[in-house]
From TrEMBL:
GO molecular function: N-acetylglucosaminyldiphosphodolichol N-acetylglucosaminyltransferase activity
Pfam families in alphabetical order: Alg14
GO BP of this protein: dolichol-linked oligosaccharide biosynthetic process
Organism: Salibacterium halotolerans
Location of this chain's protein in the cell: Endoplasmic reticulum membrane
Keywords: Endoplasmic reticulum, Membrane, Transmembrane, Transmembrane helix
Protein name: Oligosaccharide biosynthesis protein Alg14 like
Main location: endoplasmic reticulum
Transmembrane listed as a keyword: yes
Amino acid sequence: MSKKKKSVLFISSVGGHLTQLMQLKPLFQEYDYYLVTEKTVVTKGMKSEHPMSFLVYGARNYPVSYLFKFSFNFLKSLGIFLKKRPDVVVTTGVHTAVPMCWIAKLFRRKVVFIESFAKTSSPTLSGRLVYPIADLFIVQWETMLKHYPKAVHGGSIY
């Protein structure tokens, strides 16, 4: 009897966060994995290589439209979560990932958050929102342990 692979949902916003998440690509073969990110010209091409879903891209610098996009993404994240039922959610963050992390925690699933490589001295908003519920919180810079004392210093993922 073969052991069933754990189901892992990897989620991040586009740009540097997605670049960091894709550094974990060697792990994908170890799990029944699924990717979630924002839909852009760049990410649409990834769908032929990876099982994935897209959320709506939304920048916080437009507060009114962001509120609607964030709400839509929350509902879409719930639908993706209920469809995929991952055992673990792994994220390199930002706003797109926060609802999925909280949804996972509500369903008693594990949450792994990797704080951004770009943050060396101050926490991200998404990090602060997910830190209290993360089962494993990883910082890439030792200096970040002062902001996240229960975190693990994992070093750079690059």
